[in-house]
Amino acid sequence: MTGEGRPAREWTSYWRSAELPLEAMYASFLRHRYHRHSHETYSFGVTEHGAQTFTCRGAGHTSAAGMVMAFNPDEVHDGHAAHELGFTYRIVHIGRELLADVLADRAGHAVGLPLFAAPVLDSPVLATRLRRLHTALSRGAAPLERDEALSSAVAALAGLAARTPAAPPAAVRTPALTRLAARARELIHDRYADPISADDLATWTGGSRYAVYRAFRTAYGLAPSEYQRQVRLRAARRLLALGHPAARVAGEVGFTDQAHLTRWFGRSYGVTPTQYRLARAG
User: Fold this and answer.
1) pTM value?
2) What local confidence, expressed as pLDDT, does residue 282 receive?
3) Is residue 129 located within the same domain as residue 224?
4) Any idea what the CATH number is for the domain that residue 234 is in?
5) Are 177 and 216 in contact (CB under 8 A)?
6) pLDDT for 109-136, tens place per residue?
7) What is the per-residue pLDDT across 236-275, written as a single tens digit (0 to 9) for each?
8) Residue 18 burial class via C-beta count within 10 angstroms: exposed 0-12, middle 13-18, buried 19 and up
């Protein structure tokens, strides 16, 4: 950091638990801009310096120092520095099955998954507990210490979340549009590595190209092409976590080459595929 609190350069550090669906990143950005993307996990970020602005659920939000960003799984968002001073933040990704398990353990019975209605939370307690969990991951803490930090963070999260699913947008409540979007999504998941055209989606769903595009974007917050790229990126993450080299992964999941994968991986996750592959707790 400079004397004015401005990051001197951009940097990222990434950690991944070998046993649990639990990942963490610590990063400082000046000019980096996250492309619209989402995560399979719950994602909680603590802004440490500066401020980050982002669009989520159709509105703009800003997380200043000390605030917590809370993203539900599959929630589309972007992000960049709110001003020229940049921002530094740490983020923890918690798999939904892991979160459900910790919540059930606390309650003594199965409970519904939480839903965070606001993407920015002003909770010093939650920020402190997320920092503790992040530190446990980054320093390779013993399993018991890590699990205690996780349980403590989830306890704070549970008090700030609802368990009532949000009502879908009015346009998606139309059964025909819901089916159209779901059918298109099914094809993309089945053939994500293939070059799918708008005609392919129209033929598969039985709708027009325009109807499919409109229904899909309303249902999932992304155009079909953006969604396919996201599915490819998630597949790449899984293969990279298994230790597969980035060059091979790029071709297997449908990217033109390693450079193509690297460009979009960085825009979505803030790290390179190789950084992610080599990430380990501690």
Assistant:
1) 0.84
2) 56
3) no
4) 1.10.10.60
5) no
6) 888 899 999 999 999 999 999 999 999 9
7) 999 999 999 999 999 999 999 999 999 999 999 999 999 9
8) exposed
Q: Are 163 and 112 in contact (CB under 8 A)?
A: yes
Give 187-205 pLDDT, tens digit per residue: 999 999 999 998 999 999 9
Reduced 3-state DSSP string for the chain: CCCCCCCCCCEEEEEECCCCCEEEEEEEECCCEEEEECCCCEEEEEEEEEEEEEEECCEEEEEECCCEEEECCCCCEEEEECCCCCEEEEEEEECHHHHHHHHHHHHCCCCCCCECCCCEECCHHHHHHHHHHHHHHHCCCCHHHHHHHHHHHHHHHHCCCECCCCCCCHHHHCHHHHHHHHHHHHHHHHCCCCCCCHHHHHHHHCCCHHHHHHHHHHHHCCCHHHHHHHHHHHHHHHHHHCCCCHHHHHHHHCCCCHHHHHHHHHHHHCCCHHHHHHCCCC
Same domain for 175 and 148: no
User: Domain of 125: which CATH number?
Assistant: 2.60.120.10
Do 121 and 160 touch, CB atoms closer than 8 A?
Answer: yes
| Residue-range definition of the domain harbouring residue 248 | 170-278
Q: Which distant-in-sequence residues (6+ apart) come within 8 Å of 226 by Cβ? A: 36
Do 120 and 61 belong to one domain? yes
Predicted local distance difference test score (pLDDT) of residue 112: 86
